[in-house]
């Protein structure tokens, strides 16, 4: 049986590493994101590494906007009768990705910063998940969210951290609702992960060194560290693990 694995943000960083993980297990991948060329390139790299794996289906759309998310969900529902694993990796800090001027004008800027972070990290996850929750394989389906160490420690301006923290009660409620159907719902909360587009140009060498120094094992996280945890949570071996937030940060949440 070929597992259908849907990955938002599947073209880069943690989402792409998760795609490689599941492709190696022979899954039928569905990669989601806003930029078509990034997804096409990701699918080509997967095909080059794993020529025997089924070709990934790439679907573009802004998952934080209801109409666009509805279109993406509709195409997945047309193509597949069920989804085995849903990995919600799409997200990020809008402050990292924007110019400082974009959010500068007083309370209007503050409102945009908080609203945009909420849309990017909460709505992109909730809209896709709600659109597919009745298609998760029962029993055996797996839903994964990606939060952040920021949900525990803050994110300087609070808005990214608060948006990620909102995924935690959603994890508990959805795990409660879907548990009787044999579907697990868990969240992975990474610390600093290198080789992603998350920080854009905004991570200074000094800040990077500080983040690494806060880990107990004194190294940056990799997308594969997170993908391996997602992969285990998606496996049959993790069938009794649900409603959990699993931190993947080298101990940095408690680091000094
Ligand atoms: N890297 C870290 O240190 C770190 C630490 C903690 C948590 N995280 C979390 O890990 C997750 C994965 O991020 P990453 O680190 O792998 O960074 P990334 O490379 O920037 O990946 C984010 C992905 O999400 C997609 N995306 C963003 N907004 C979207 C939208 N509205 N609709 C659909 N797709 C969207 C992006 O593609 P498009 O731009 O083409 O849409 C991109 O592929 C994020 O939720 C992030 O907050 C990252």
From TrEMBL:
Family matches, as Gene3D superfamilies: NAD(P)-binding Rossmann-like Domain
UniProt keyword terms in alphabetical order: Oxidoreductase
Residue intervals of the Ketoreductase domain: 3-196
Highest taxon of the lineage: Bacteria
Keyword set includes Glycosyltransferase: no
Record Pfam families: adh_short_C2
Keyword ATP-binding: no
SMART domains: PKS_KR (SM00822)
Coiled coil (UniProt feature): none
Family from the record: Belongs to the short-chain dehydrogenases/reductases (SDR) family.
Identification of the protein by name: SDR family oxidoreductase
């Amino acid at each position: 049986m070929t597992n259908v694995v849907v990955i938002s943000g599947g073209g880069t960083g943690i989402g792409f590493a998760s795609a490689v993980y599941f492709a190696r297990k022979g899954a039928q991948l569905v990669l989601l994101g806003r930029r078509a060329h990034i997804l096409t390139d990701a699918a080509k790299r997967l095909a080059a590494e794993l020529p025997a794996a089924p070709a990934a289906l790439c679907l573009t759309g802004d998952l934080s906007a209801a109409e666009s998310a509805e279109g993406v969900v509709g195409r997945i529902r047309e193509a597949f009768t069920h989804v085995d694993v849903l990995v919600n990796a799409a997200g990020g800090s809008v402050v990292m990705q924007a110019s400082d001027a974009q959010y500068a004008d007083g309370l209007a800027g503050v409102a945009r910063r908080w609203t945009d972070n909420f849309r990017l990290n909460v709505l992109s996850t909730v809209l896709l998940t709600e659109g597919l929750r009745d298609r998760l394989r029962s029993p055996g389906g797996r839903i994964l969210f990606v939060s952040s160490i920021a949900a525990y420690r803050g994110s300087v301006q609070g808005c990214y951290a608060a948006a990620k923290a909102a995924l935690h009660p959603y994890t508990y409620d959805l795990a409660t609702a879907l548990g009787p159907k044999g579907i697990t719902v868990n969240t992975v909360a990474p610390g600093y992960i290198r080789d992603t587009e998350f920080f854009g140009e905004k991570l200074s060498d000094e800040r990077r060194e500080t983040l690494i120094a806060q880990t107990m094992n004194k190294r940056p996280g990799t997308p594969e560290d997170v993908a391996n945890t997602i992969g285990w949570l998606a496996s049959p071996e993790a069938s009794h693990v649900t409603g959990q937030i699993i931190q993947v940060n080298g101990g940095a949440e408690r680091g000094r």
